Hints:
Shape: elongated
Structural class: mainly alpha
Helix content: over 70%
Radius of gyration: 22 Å
Number of domains: 1
Order of helices and strands: HHHHHHHHH
Amino acid sequence: MNPAAAPERPPRFPRFHDAALQMGGGAMLAWKVVTSGLRGRFDWKALRYQIEHIGVRSTSIGSLTALFAGMVLSVQFGYFMAKFGIAYAIGRVLALSVLRELGPVLTALTVGGRVGSGIAAELGSMQVTEQIDAIRALGADPVKKLVVPRVLATTICVPIITVFADVIGLVSGAVIAKSMYGIGYGEFYRQAVAAVVLNDFTSGIFKAAVFGALIGIVGCYKGFATSGGTEGVGRATTETVAISAIGVLLADFVLTQLLLSL
Length: 262
């Protein structure tokens, strides 16, 4: 039997194989974004549209999430800290938790679910209707035209929304600390300012920027890889939400270790 005609063996671990292929494809797309974004003219109009479409319309869900997160954390921290007579330090714990972790992570998870699925659905629809192939046929680069503005917009917008989320989370936490545990606003913010340094804030914003880029890359990659008509578009959107959430949590672990070591 001719070895060249032998059928290919299926991968031994298909799930791991598929995951490795998707990670490699996403990394290659990220590299193309960097190289395409720095070459030739840039479509600033498309970037402005994506910032408005992604950022402005996602501020409400990010703010609402931060509002209730700050309230819940203040209740939880106050309840246990009051048992040890240190309820006055709620501001310290809440400020560090919100600025370093919960602000960027919760914003990325909530906003990323909405934004990533929207990007995947939009590009997936263009892929199955062969609009992306038409862009290539006209001599344009679909990565530069479609992917770069979306990835830059998510990278810019997620940190900005995180800043709003940080402020709203701290304000809602202060209100709960005042109403439930009698901690004055002045004392709450004195404790918060005493515990927080600039690095706590900047590390959270840096994480949010990385999360935003990750969400944009995943959404665009799944959109470009869509096949199977409308059913494939739906599958791409759901996979984008799951992969983005796992990627954000994994990236948060790696970045936290890196930033703490620095």
